[in-house]
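Methods — Computational structure assignment.
A single polypeptide chain was analysed. Its primary sequence is given first, followed by the predicted tertiary structure written as structure tokens.
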Amino acid sequence: MTRKIIAILLLLCAPALCCACAGEAADAPPAAETPAVTLAGDSAAAELVLTYADGREARFSLADKLLMQGSYPPEFADAVMGSAAAAYGETAAVFIPASFYFEQPRDHVLEISRDNGETWQELTVPRGDNDGVFYSLMGFTAPEHIWLLLQGGVAMGRAPQYLYISDDGGLTWQYGDLPQPAGGWVVDYATFLDENEGYISAGSGRLSGPAPHCCRTADGGQTWQECTFETDFADDYFWVEEIARAEEGYRLRGRLQNADSEVYFTSADGLFWQQEK
């Protein structure tokens, strides 16, 4: 008899419990919006600009950072040479490399905001032996997880490259390894899909066949495997514009050089890619 009473009470309470759960879900805060990030201005008045979907903008002046780096020659007057910017939800950051024109050695700078650009904190990124950063790529996989790829000047088609990873919002950094031959060529695309899985792509296939040098890591940049591509074009070559997860594996969007059109590939494991027909 007691069991029957308990069962009846549970049935009567179930709708109320469901409604309470639904109410909690409805009241849950929405995921923080990730704004578009751009670097604007010139070497005298450069700004980091965060643009949100509703048209709001947050701006951060880089003028004083440029003064710390010294004066660039006129040919490098466009924004901050070698800088990169990225955002994730309410967190935004701009990387400012130590200039090889600066007379005294100093570390790189990471300016980071955790409140949509209202306030900023200046952090340092160890300079190491990477003098003369001409080009950098940066991204977030979570508010506290930042990856940063730095490249030096190109000589004979090759450039020194360095991978940095932070798991604590830029307070400390670990070095990752970059593969060969991608480590010796100019990397023009990089992404991390989470803290462990990432891709880099070096150049187009002009010098290596129809496909670029593209590599995948599954351990946060410690080891890499080279990707292979199955293509149906012989008189053109492509470079990578985006790699993302799909319903069944992964999808890659590239751009054909001669045809100037998009080309797509799919992969089940992220390593072997087949061209979409």
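Note: The first strand starts at residue 36 and ends at 40.
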